[in-house]
Amino acid sequence: MNKDTQRAKAEAFRAMHDRKQVLVLVNAWDAGSARFIEDAGARAIASSSAGLAYSLGYSDGEYVPLDEFIGAIARIARVIKVPLSADIESGFGADEKGVGGTVRAIIEAGAVGINLEDSTGERERPLYDIESAVARVHAARAAGEALGVPLVINARSDALVTLKGERGAILDEAIKRCNAYRAAGADSLFPLGLEGEAEISRATREINGPVNLIFRPNIPPLARLQELGIARLSLGSAAALAALTLTHQIAQEMFGAGTYPSMLGRGINYVEANKIMQS
Questions:
Q1: What is the pTM (predicted TM-score) of this model?
Q2: Tally of structural domains, the chain
Q3: How far is it, in rounded angstroms, from Cα 132 to Cα 145?
Q4: What is the C-alpha to C-alpha distance for residues 200 and 213, in angstroms, rounded to an integer?
């Protein structure tokens, strides 16, 4: 991708976090899903780490070989015109140098944003210590600067979903981490696991930057999220799981009753799908 084009996409993507309108990201899991999401009116597209992993035949949690992961991001970037943000989980690197290498490869593949989390995947040490996590954000920012692309970093803290103890104290930790990541160069902050309007409102008041929320069945409507100060709503693996659920249901019907109800009266036909992919 032309670096001037990539810079323009990064700047446009950053501007979408101005909190004037909640930025809705329907997360794609492969090139085809990304193209369909863009056709539906997406202003930008983010990848789903889980959905992408499933599409390549792996479970979530950085089990995808990095070269396959980068290849999948490149295929998505090739077929869309809107900005692309890649969920790189914890960065596919044991230290900040490894994170920097991953981010450079992601930018070269065509992405202009990343989601970077502070989870280690280890039971006994579920989060990177805050100094290490900050260094990883710094490394991501430096990688973008080295390539001349103003990378949009969505820094995620997993404190609320990994730490044990009093809920208020854990929320304090999540907010502290998000503010540290903001100071390190993150553009938006993602305290995973916020529950209820009181926590959402506190997060948007006390985090010094745009706040990302992930879809859950019980979250408030978009209009209310706007009032609460949310800048960005991502669907995570929800769309990928819905597609896989329907596929599983179709297969169960065919292998069981030998009937077709899940395939009848639904959605986009062959001609329409080809038209979307050709546009």
A1: 0.96
A2: 1
A3: 20
A4: 8
